[in-house]
Design brief:
Number of domains: 3
Order of helices and strands: HHHEEEEEEHHHHEHHEEHEEHHEE
Helix content: 40-55%
Shape: rod-shaped
Number of helices: 12
Strand content: 15-25%
Structural class: alpha+beta
Largest sheet: 6 strands, mixed
Length: about 475
Amino acid sequence: MKRQSRSLAVRIALSFVVIVCIVLAMVSAALYHATNQALSTRADYQLIGRVEHFRSLLHDLYTIKEIEARPRLFETMLGDRQDVILFRRAGSAPFINVNPEQMSLPPLHVVPVTRPIGLDDLYEGTRADGVRMRWVGAQARIGDNGEVVEIIAAHVMTQEARVLSVYLERVWLNVIGAALVTMLLAWWVTSRGLQPLKLMADKAAEIAPDRLSARLDVAHAPAELQSLAASFNAMLDRLEHGYERLLQFSADLAHELRTPIGVLIGETQVTLAHERNVAEYRNVLESNLEELERLARIAQNILFLAQADHGEQRIERERLDIHDELDTICTYFEGIADERRIRFDIDASGEMVANAIMCRRAVGNVVVNAVRYATAGSVVRLHGHADAAGAVLKVRNQVDGDIGPEELGKLFDRFYRGDAARSEFTESSGLGLSIVQAIMRLHGGSASVESPGDGWIEFTLRFPSAN
């Protein structure tokens, strides 16, 4: 079962939600800690201020009996009804004991009467239900008689805990609400942001073999998608070019095969129309064999080009003498050249690294092409030399009239004929120069053609060095 892909908009929205939740959680944690610290500090200063106030009150009174007579005075000064306040003589029972929950006193360091109370003098404790408490002990002097008593005070941080609890609940609600709102907004914004991508996909879906000329609009695409659109258009350019070449190749191939097949069918039908003797049948079979051999050459050449295009050809290279190779090829084609009174002029030296069979085939195709199209009675010049980059072979011939740049660019196309009056020489199917280009690509080299002017045309084959 195929797994259904999640929407990109949903993925981005969820990513935003996670990021927002993490940021809000970090900010909320920092604010919670800061609030907790602020509440604790405020409670500490209130507790210190309360005890210092008690010190001042005791100093204004004359005796402990006056203190015992006014217990309500001190109860009303507590910050919370759960808070604790004790007055006692050192080592004695409290004579003022406001301790609603009867909490046991922790061991405290009592601040001397001569020193004010500081934050470092407070102690932290915990009530049975886990609520924090702050304790402090300090001495106070009563009236003018100088009697010293101890004040033990405690603040139960119930209100602070309640504030923090409410704050935490609101934080969670805000985080959840922010996550939902962020997810909706992120999904909406992302969906709108991805709309150009959807439009590009719709445009791409309209492209068909009969509409390969359609292109994506790069100018109006978002900056982030312009490179994608440009790359896609470049791919379409290659596809269109390849498709056009394939159509042309198919048409040329059909045309190329139609002639020998038509000849075979026609000769066979004519032969079968009447009784023939053995010699006539033999002539027909020999003629058919020539056409079949031509078909076999076409098929072999097409197979070679297909294998070369897909990199299926593996070549072994060796060192070859450039002059010897050119001389061997010219000797092979002397008969064809003599028929048109064409001479060969070889100027070559040095060595090259190439596959001998493929090299001779490539150079031979260029030479036979030069002989076929050269002006009768002219000279075909062959030049070759080696340098650090490799070897360069040139075949130059003169033709009747000049060849335009447009025609030069098509000479290496498959089945292209620059002249309808091709003879039946080797590689006369229109694939000779295409095979030359394929062989040069297999060697990692190149094949090019130019027309210097005055009816001259020059083919250049560049073979790379052994390195």
